[in-house]
């Protein structure tokens, strides 16, 4: 069986091109480095280095071996650092699931202040429910609830789904049509405009359209961008429309970059919930996260 210490020594010699530097890096003697390399060469059956101008030049076989073993060795070194016994107090780790935009709006700026580890995960809510139930997540922020006996959902705020436009857009005609309750003409006018949406999720647009025009939107957005925060930045001060949660663009509204075009005759409001297991080992850290969300102005 191959000795892992031989491979670690080989990696160091390969990268430093020197037995002396490798010995210093690994805190072993230079004869020890030489012994590891010669033992590895005997095991694999070919030379790994050639000495040229006081440098150790890897052979073609050494290059193949290095590329093949580098990633596993790095993973082993990470595991060693992570699980090495230490006298330091262990920092708790909290895994949180939410949508990317909610993270950027609320939690991102607080991350450097935490005295505990945080892992943020994005994804579909159905997967988050499963991961929370199975212990892979400790807390989720969600506009939906799941009927799972081990989970508790606590409402803390609401988001309103609204039609927005950049302030470079002339909405006079649309507003006149809405005032006259000419909904079909207003819909037709909107479909001729510039639209932004996200690649992953058109749920807000679909729900808003169905609630107010009694059908799914039958047009294709002009610009598909990575997330809602990108939409807000692209629209600010420019022309175009999108359908988003109102709290994600409150700053741009205050700065006159974006306007709420229409809340709809049938307003859409989503209740936001904290989802967590009934029993967990990081309740103090979870409570701190929840307090941050409660203090935000949704």
UniProtKB/TrEMBL annotation:
<comment type="similarity">
    <text>Belongs to the LysR transcriptional regulatory family.</text>
</comment>
<dbReference type="InterPro" id="IPR036390">
    <property type="entry name" value="WH_DNA-bd_sf"/>
</dbReference>
<dbReference type="InterPro" id="IPR000847">
    <property type="entry name" value="LysR_HTH_N"/>
</dbReference>
<dbReference type="Pfam" id="PF00126">
    <property type="entry name" value="HTH_1"/>
</dbReference>
<dbReference type="GO" id="GO:0000976">
    <property type="term" value="F:transcription cis-regulatory region binding"/>
</dbReference>
<keyword id="KW-0804">Transcription</keyword>
<feature type="domain" description="HTH lysR-type">
    <location>
        <begin position="2"/>
        <end position="59"/>
    </location>
</feature>
<dbReference type="InterPro" id="IPR036388">
    <property type="entry name" value="WH-like_DNA-bd_sf"/>
</dbReference>
<keyword id="KW-0805">Transcription regulation</keyword>
<keyword id="KW-0238">DNA-binding</keyword>
<dbReference type="GO" id="GO:0003700">
    <property type="term" value="F:DNA-binding transcription factor activity"/>
</dbReference>
<protein>
    <submittedName>
        <fullName>DNA-binding transcriptional regulator, LysR family</fullName>
    </submittedName>
</protein>
């Amino acid at each position: 069986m191959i000795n892992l210490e031989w491979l670690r020594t080989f990696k160091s010699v390969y990268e430093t091109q020197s037995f002396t530097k490798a010995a210093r890096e690994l805190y072993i003697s230079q004869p020890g480095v030489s012994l590891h390399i010669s033992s590895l060469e005997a095991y694999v059956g070919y030379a790994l280095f050639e000495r040229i101008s006081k440098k150790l030049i890897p052979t073609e076989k050494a290059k193949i071996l290095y590329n093949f073993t580098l990633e596993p060795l790095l993973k082993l070194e990470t595991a060693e650092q992570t699980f090495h016994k230490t006298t330091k107090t262990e920092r708790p780790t909290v895994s949180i699931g939410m949508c990317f935009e909610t993270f950027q709006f609320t939690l991102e700026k607080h991350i450097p202040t935490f005295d505990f580890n945080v892992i943020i995960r994005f994804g579909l809510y159905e997967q988050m429910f499963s991961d929370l139930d199975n212990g892979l997540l400790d807390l989720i922020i969600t506009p939906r609830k799941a009927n799972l006996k081990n989970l508790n959902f606590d409402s803390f705020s609401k988001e309103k789904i609204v039609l927005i436009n950049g302030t470079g857009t002339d909405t006079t005609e649309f507003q006149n049509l809405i005032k006259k309750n000419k909904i079909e003409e207003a819909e037709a006018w909107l479909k001729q405009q510039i639209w932004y949406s996200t690649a992953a999720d058109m749920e807000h647009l679909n729900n808003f359209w169905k609630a107010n025009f009694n059908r799914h939107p039958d047009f294709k957005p002009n610009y598909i961008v990575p997330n809602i925060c990108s939409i807000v930045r692209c629209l600010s001060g420019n022309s175009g429309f999108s359908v988003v949660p109102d709290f994600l663009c409150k700053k741009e509204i205050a700065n006159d970059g974006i306007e709420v075009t229409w809340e709809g005759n049938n307003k859409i409001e989503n209740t936001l919930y904290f989802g967590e297991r009934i029993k967990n080992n990081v309740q103090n850290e979870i409570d701190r996260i929840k307090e941050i969300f409660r203090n935000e102005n949704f």
